[in-house]
Structures are given as C-alpha cells and as structure tokens.
Amino acid sequence: MKGYKKYYTKKIIWYVITLVIAVILNFLLPRLMPGDPVSAIAARTAVGMTSQTAIQKVYEDYVKAFGIDKPIYVQFFNYITNALKGNFGVSFIYYPRTVSDILARSIWWTVCLQLPAIIVGWLLGNILGAVAAYIKGAWDKAVLPVFLFLSNMPAFGMAIILQFFFAVYLKWFPASLGYGYDMIPNLSLKFIGSIIYHYQLPFWSIVLITIGGQAIGMRSMSIYELNADYVKYSRFLGIKDRKIVKYVFRNAMLPQITGLALSLGTMVGGALVAEMIFSYPGLGTTLLSAITGRDYPVISACTLIITIMVLIANLIVEILYGFIDPRIKAAQQE
Amino acid sequence: MNNLLKQVFRSSRFTIGFVIFIIMFITIIFYPLFVRDDPLAMIGGLFNKPGTYISVSDVLNTDYIDLKIDTSAAKLKSISIEDRQSMADWLVKFGNIKKSEININDIAALVKLWNENYSAAAAQTGLLYAEKQQYIRLNNQINKLINSGDQYIATKDDNGQLVEKDPVSPRAFVNSKDIINKKTFVLGTDNFGRDVLTELVAATGTSLKIGLVAGTIATFIGLLLGLLAGYVGGTLDDFILFITNLFTVIPSFILLVLISFSVGQSARGVMLTASIIGLTSWPWTARSVRSQVISLRNRDHVNLSKLSGHSLHKIIFTDILPYVASYVVMAFILQISSGILSEAQLSMLGLGPATTKVSTLGLMMNWAMQYKAPIAGAWWAFLPVILAITLISFSLNLMNTGLDQVFNPQLRD
After folding, report:
1. CA atoms of A163 and A208, how far apart (whole Å)
2. Interface touch A307/B254, C-beta < 8 Å
3. Testing the interface with A: which of B249, B285, B385 to mutate, by most A Cβ within 10 A?
4. Which chain A residue is nearest to residue B409, measuring alpha carbons?
5. B36 near B213, Cβ under 8 Å?
6. Is some CB atom of chain A closer than 8 A to the CB atom of B258?
7. Alpha-carbon distance A37 to A41, whole Å?
8. pLDDT per residue as tens digits for the range B9-32
9. How many beta carbons lie within 10 A of that of residue A275, not counting itself?
10. Residue A220 touches partner B, C-beta closer than 8 Å
11. Could you tell me which of A168, A235, A239, B156 has the fewest CB atoms within 10 Å of its CB?
C-alpha cells in the first residue's frame, strides 16, 4: 500500500488542477464571448416576466451573484466562494427556487441511471467481445456487424427507437418521466415499483449503446492478445485453455479500463441526451429546459456539476486501474 | 500507390463501408437533380403519412370505370380492433351469442352476426347512457360502410343552385395514372409539412459538410500539436500533453454546450457550429499522433536526416508525416463521424445551427422531438434520420477498421 502513495498523490493533484481549470473555463467561456452575454441574458430573461418584484429580485440576485460591474478577478472570486457554498443563484424560469435546490433533486436521478447503466453495459460489452474473439467463426461474423451498428447509433437514437417500439407501439413500458405522473414521491412499495418500471427503457438504451462500443474494443484487444507469443508458448507447454483465457482476458481488459476513463465524458454526454428523450427527471432534462428557457444560472451550474461528476468518475477508474495493473504496482515498489 | 489501393480494397470491411458511403454520397449529389423541389418547402400538413396523395377534384373529373369488386368487404376491415371487441362484448352480453362463436378477426361474420342481433331498443341493463349512444353510433358507422349507395357530385349552376352532375357508384374506379395532380411523399411529411425524403437528403449533405469542416479543423489542430509534442519533446511536449489530457477528461460535450450557448442564437450558423465542434474535438487526434511520432523519433532515417542538417519542418514533412499519414487519415474519418454525431446532440439540446435556410440531421431530430413524433406514432419523421446518422458513422467506422486491419497486420483475422 505504501508504494501506491506516490502514484495516487500524483493522480489526485493532477485531477485537482484539472478541476480548477474546468471551473475557470466554466466561468470564463460565457464571459469571453462578444457582446457580454451574461448581461444580455439577464435582460432577456426578465422580458417575459410580469411580476415587477420578480424582475427586480432576479436583477438584484444577478448583480449580487455575478457582480457584473466589478473587475473580472473579483467576479471570479465571488463565483468561486458562491460555488463552494453551494450557492449557484436563483433560477430564472423556476423563480424563486434556487439552482442548488433544482440540481439537488435531479442529480441523483442521473447518477442512479447512468452509473449502473454504464457499468452494466461495459461489463456485458467486454464479456461479449471476449467471447466473440475466443469463439470466432460464425458467431463472431454474425455478431460483430451488429455490435458495430449498435455502437454507431447515437445514444438518443437508441432511446427514441426503444421509446417508440416498447412504449408507443407495444405499450409495455411508459414513454416518459421517472415515475407515475399521478404519484407523490414517497417510500411506498407502489412508488418504488413505478420507479423501476419507468427505469427500464432509459437504462437499457444506455446499456445497449455502451455494449456496442466496448464489445468491439474488447474483441480486437482479445484477438491481439490471443495471437501473442505468450499464448502460443503456454499452449505448447500444455497449460489448460481456461487458464490461458484468464490471462488473455486480464491483459485485454487493461486497455479497456483506460478506454473507459477516456470515453466517459462522451458517454455521459450521449446519455444525458438520451435522458432528455424520456423526460427523465435528471440533469439532462434540467439542462434542456434551462437551455430552452435561457436559464443561465442553471446551465452554468449543470455544466459544472457534470464536469465534476465525470472528473470524479475518471479518478475512481484510475485508482482502480492502479490496483488491477501489476505493472503499476511493480513500478511503485522499485 | 496503386498497390496500396489494391490492398485497401481487399479488406472486405473497408469495401462495404466505402460502398455504403459512396451510395449515400451519390444520392446526396444526384437526388436534387431529379427532384428539384426546395427541400424546405412546406407542402403538406403536420406529420402526413407516407404515400401518394392524389387530388380529390381530379378524381371526380376523371372518367370512371365500373369494376366488379366487392368494395364493402375491404372497407369493413377499417373497423378498429377496439370497436370489434366492443361489438363482441355486446353480442355476448345482450345478443345471447356464445363467446366461442365470435371471432373478431373474421370481420364479415362478425358484422353479419351484429346485423342479425343488434337492436338499439333492446334492454341493455348495466350500460350507461353514454355507452348505449356509443353502440348506436357504432351501428350507424357499420351500416354506412355496408350500404354505401351511389354518392352524388353536384356543381353550382348559373343561378347558384346545386345541380346534380353524376352519380358515383361504390364500384366506380379511376386509373391513378390518369390523375394529373398527385404528390408522393415516400417518407411522409414532417411537423412543418415538408417532404421528409427530400429534406433528409439535403440534411445529410449539410451534416456531412459539418462533419468534414469539424473533422478538418480537429485533425489539423491535433496533427500540429501531436507532431510538435512528439518530435520536439521536452517542455513543449509536457505542456501540450498536459493540455491534451485536460481536454480529454473535461467532457467536450460540456464545452460544446457552454460555447454554443454563449455564442448566442443569432451568430450560430452551420459553419460556426462546425468550427466549434472542430475546436473541441482535437485531443484524441493529438494524443494518438503524439504517441506515433514518439515511436518514430529515434528511427535511423530520422537521425540521418537530423545529421544531414535538415530543417525541422523538412524532417517533419518528409521523414515523419508520411509514416503517420495512414494514422491521420483514420483519425480524420473518425472525426467526421463524431462531428456529425456532436452536431446532432447539440441540435437535440436546441443549441445546433440556428437557421431556417438549411436543415441538418440534428435539426430534423430536434423538430421531430419538439412535436413529439414518437408519441404521435409518426415514425417516418425520426427513424429515417436516426438511420441516416447511424449509416454514415457505420460506413465511416467500417472504413476505419478496414484501414486499421491493412496498416496494422496484427489485427488481421
């Protein structure tokens, strides 16, 4: 365990730096654009409002939260202190709800949907890919094009097809929302049942998309490993196929874990759009309604939260990678 | 070169991908030559079904021919399953018919039974007034279908009186070829009443353009940074690698959303969207080019070139670039397909190109979703678009894996 200390400290420091830069980008990008959109958005949002007190409150909150008249480094400092306190301002469209209140509700839906879906999809994809590489022949020939086609379908495409076929045409599952529209969230069995019932389509659409890409990667990695010299040598030695496959799988798995870390951002982006299709009450739907309503505080907070979530997930994957890859362990013990 | 092409096309995967792509490409180019309609012309209504629409007035003015076909049998098939079920329910409850005698799939027999037994005056205990009325309406509907006698066309004469022109018997037919005004919507119409097929072909073209522009920008930046980082090394390499790693971890989707939103609706054209996508998607290319260049850096021919005193750009262009060229082409192909996908995702969020002049695949999806096409059952408004996106990236990825197999012999089966 001692050997890992250096590795993990390095990783964590790197991620903290990344986080700082991500926060700066999140702050700076909208302000760098021509025409100072931040002020423009505040003005535009207030146009549709009828209540004078609401307009005034939004403006006041706005000036307070962003400090538009102050120099940019003061604005940034305010932004950081507010973000650390979990204060992202007041939503324009859901006035007077605070942004942190809105996000606190939606974030768990997204985490509970995407985390299991990506993990299950990743596992299934790797198993199917390894099996395809090992069995070869007709199975491989038939299954590979299906995987290829699946992996090239955009996540929202899969979501729409599942929604249309299973919800609208067959009416097996509900077409949208996270639970029955006539229910109030509580801990009754009926409510949990409704959640599980509504969970299926969004879940499987993300799983299917993930399977495709992972299976192809695993398949080519496994073929590469199966042709490696150590496999041939082990076969000559008469080591059982089962044991060899175990090593092959483990070796082929490592690049797949790195691949997962690298493609996590893309996956989450796709899954967020898939969430929108089902009006699932997560961050994707919140982001969509914020963009439609030009609700700048919500958009800014959403992008920040999603970035932080992806960074944390990446860090976890890298920490796990350190445990799994024997080379890292060896490097640390030198 | 010739040999290389031969080798590339021997890969069945590349060939299949190439053929799909070329077919789509040819369609994009030649379809507008045959169908000269404006792809964004609003001709139809909200989600008109696919099919040929013929002018009713033309039908009336065409000469009829009597065909000896029983038209009522086909018409009875239009009675919905729900109606058939409620007919069967009534017959079982109040018509003293056994359930086993009724087959709701045999509509002719069901209607016959219905006509023999149904009477609005029968005592229908347990039925609400509304339900009784429902059955009367259903009965009228069925009778109308069976007993459709001659219908009359009338025109107004000089005094404004309606004058009967001629009767149309239920068995009158016209030849559809004689009808001049007709319009075929192979894939129906979208929410604005635009012809989906024509729009789809135009949109695929625009999306491909977006992919090309985004892919070119991303590949150019990625190649430049990758070459510099890989060949020059040192602090520059550390710096570029740091930036690259940073942008692979920060989701490009989020950057896209932030930039697109900040740019504002008025400025967001097709080309700007493509440029934004290109500017956020280079890290992949930079990463892989860098690792390729590092493995090349210490080859003999590069060292020889260095000893001969060749300049930096000459070494990069003549000694390194040709070796990474195949890799760059593959990365470029992937960038095109991911660019098209990014545009679609952005547009679904309402951050795509803000234009009414052209259509893109993402915008078509966005409109279909805003008008709830899946719930309305209007499959033609979204399935072909999804299929088009999938086919483009499928063909491009097939080409990519095909090339990978050719240039990377270890992957060959």
Report:
1. 14
2. yes
3. B249
4. A224
5. no
6. yes
7. 6
8. 888 888 989 999 999 999 999 998
9. 30
10. yes
11. B156
pTM, two decimal places = 0.83
Residue from the list B250, B397, B410 with its beta carbon closest to the beta carbon of A18:
B250
DSSP conformation letters of B89-142: HHHHHHS---GGG--TT-HHHHHHHHHHH--TTS--TT--HHHHHHHHHHHHHH
Does the interface predicted TM-score (ipTM) exceed 0.90? no
The mean per-residue pLDDT over the stretch A266-282 comes to 87
3-state secondary structure of B80: coil
From chain A, pick out residues whose CB is under 8 angstroms from the CB of B250: 18, 21-22, 25, 265, 307, 310-311
Strand partners, B162: B156
Which of chain A's residues have a Cβ under 8 Å away from the Cβ of B344? 154, 156
Which residues partner with B52 through β-bridges?
Answer: B184
Q: Report which secondary-structure segment, H or E, holds B74.
A: helix B71-76
What is the torsional sign of CA B96, B99, B100, B106? positive
Residues in chain A: 334
B336: nearest Cα among B274, B266, B383: B274
Q: Name the pairing type of β-strands B182-185 and B65-66.
A: unpaired
Contacts of B259 in chain A (CB under 8 A): 29, 33
DSSP run (H or E) holding B182: strand B182-185
Q: What is the pLDDT of residues A224-251, one digit of tens each?
A: 888 888 888 988 898 888 888 888 888 8
Of A160, A168, A310, the CB nearest to B251: A310
Question: A225 is written with which tokens?
Answer: 């490993």
Architecture in CATH for domain B2-45+191-407: Orthogonal Bundle (1.10)
Q: How, if at all, do strands B151-156 and B182-185 pair?
A: unpaired
**Does the pLDDT at position A325 exceed 80?**
no
CB A227 to CB B394 under 8 A? no
Query: Which chain B residue has its CA at the smallest distance from A270's CA?
Result: B345
> Cα–Cα distances in Å, from A111 out to A117, A158, A268, A306, B371?
10, 20, 10, 10, 28
Name the residue ranges covered by the structural domains of chain B: 2-45+191-407, 64-173
Residues 6+ apart with CB under 8 A from B158: none
